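User: I'm preparing a small set of examples for a lab meeting where we compare how different chains pack in three dimensions. I only have the primary sequence for this one, and I'd like the structure in token form so I can line it up with the others. Please keep the answer compact; I'll paste it straight into my notes.
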Amino acid sequence: MIIFLGALILGITLLIWLWKVPITKMANAMKENGSSAFEAYTIITLLVVGLAGAVYMISRVI
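Assistant: Understood. Below is the structure token output for the 62-residue chain.
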């Protein structure tokens, strides 16, 4: 139970960091280069969903 709670807290912390640092910087960079905010966040969402799918498939194999 303690390991589960620790993993949950760590996962939430990493998601918050992921949103605050790399995703925000990437969206700002894309907007500065002429992309709309919707386009920037759509591309980032697709990348994150793809990464989540890859992690899920790897976890199912292991």
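A couple of notes for your slides: Helices lie at 2-32, 37-61. The mean pLDDT is 84.

User: Perfect, thanks.
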